[in-house]
Specification:
Layout (H helix, E strand, L loop, with lengths): L9 E6 L5 H14 L4 E5 L6 H10 L7 H24 L3 E5 L2 H9 L8 H5 L10 E6 L2 H6 L11 H18 L5 E5 L4 H12 L15 H8 L6
Helix pairs in contact: 2-3, 3-4, 4-7
Family: Belongs to the thymidylate kinase family.
GO cellular component, one term: cytosol
Protein name: Thymidylate kinase
Length: 230
């Protein structure tokens, strides 16, 4: 039988606004390319799709929508690209993703709106491809405010960011056996953050033979049979 080739690794970079995610993701992409490794960059929300354009208008405060509807749009935006991410991974391409389902849960649950519990916010994303590694860029509110552009979008205020951070902390604990979710101090200088991210990513750079897993698979049957299922 022919030897099975490893698939690409699915690596997600998460964090609060102005934590440096987009900069670090771009640097990681450059590193993979420089080493001749196949890599694909993804970003959520993907504002180029029809659903993404609706989300973009909302984030720029150019339109108003019910919070429940907005949350489901964010999830639908991820499902739009789920199969193409799987196809890339199976083709041996590493996928580096700027934000993913964890941001969707954190920003919606942090609103503390009736009918938007943590469990409700998580439900629409059950079954999405699960990252092999998630790196959370942990930035202090003071550092975030120092960085250019803070406050340009709807959720960029100190109170909201603090609530979002608390939800991210919960997700990190739940994800956790210590090998698939790492918090990185994003108050450090850019180069130090880049070095720490690469240290975590390097064991995954050659890909993996582990089958692609699904987010919160163990919850799937229970949620499908409950009022939480969307």
């Amino acid at each position: 039988m022919p030897e099975r080739k490893p698939r690409g690794a699915f690596i997600v970079v998460e964090g609060l606004d102005r934590s440096g995610k987009s900069t670090q993701v771009a640097l990681l992409e450059q590193r993979f390319k420089a080493e001749g490794r196949p890599v694909r960059l993804a970003k959520f929300p993907d504002r180029a799709t029809p659903i993404g354009k609706m989300i973009d208008a909302y984030l720029r405060s150019q339109s108003e929508m019910d919070d429940h509807a907005v949350h489901l749009l964010f999830s639908a935006n991820r499902w739009e690209l789920a199969q193409s991410i799987i196809d890339s991974l199976n083709a041996g391409t590493t996928v580096i993703c700027d934000r993913y389902a964890f941001s969707g849960i954190a920003f919606s649950a942090a609103k503390n709106k009736p009918g938007m519990s943590y469990e409700w916010c998580r439900a629409p994303d059950i079954g999405l491809p699960a990252p092999d590694l998630t790196l959370f860029l942990d930035v202090s509110p003071e550092k975030a405010r120092e960085r250019g552009g803070f406050g340009a979008e709807r959720y960029e205020n100190a109170d909201m960011q603090e609530r979002v951070q608390h939800v991210f902390e919960r997700i990190g604990v739940e994800m956790g056996d210590g090998s698939r979710w790492f918090a990185v101090d994003a108050d450090q200088e850019q180069g130090a953050v880049t070095d720490e991210l690469w240290m975590r990513i390097q064991p995954h750079a050659q890909g993996t033979e582990r089958p692609i897993q699904r987010l919160w698979e163990e919850l799937d049957e229970r949620v499908r049979n409950s009022h939480l299922y969307i």
